[in-house]
Amino acid sequence: MTRDRRAAHLALGAVLVLALAGPAPSAQEPDRRQVVALPPAGQERVLGEMRAMLESVDAIVRALGTDDLAAAERAARAAGMAAAVDMDPGMQQRLPPAFLALGMQTHRAFDRLADELKAGPTTAEALRGLAGVTANCVACHAAWRFAPAAPSR
Ligand code: HEC
What whole-number distance in Å separates Cα of residue 64 and Cα of residue 44? Predict the structure, then answer.
């Protein structure tokens, strides 16, 4: 084997070793999220709130696409603290404090975004503000889940 070919073999070997040592992509990683234990009615309330927040995110992105800051502000405000207050206290107490805190922080972030939108930001500034909200969605979804539904009721 010539020197050049041996060098090529070594380089190929190194690439293979690096590829094998990397994180193995797997579609079936075990679910390590913590479970929030709520009765079905409570879960439904929270999931309803989730869908409303997603609607707000959708409406904000849409409004920014047409430079309609007033509509974006309204959509952000709709998911602010006012959307959180009517949760019944009994259910609030059943939520893990860290989960509740992150949820409240998210509603406050929507209010802060609404204030920013009112001040007439550039689209880039508005999107950075929105990213501050969606980071909360991602962080909480990565850490928590509800228990899977019972097979039949
Ligand atoms: C404090 C925690 C928390 C935050 C913050 C949060 N979520 Fe969720 N969300 C959850 C949990 C828990 C579920 C249920 C997931 C599961 O069981 O796999 C969920 C589910 C959802 C669902 C599915 C609803 C359904 O009907 O099944 C949507 C949509 C959603 N979230 C949107 C959002 C959006 C958008 C944001 C941010 C603006 C957000 N969530 C922020 C905890 C959170």
Answer: 30
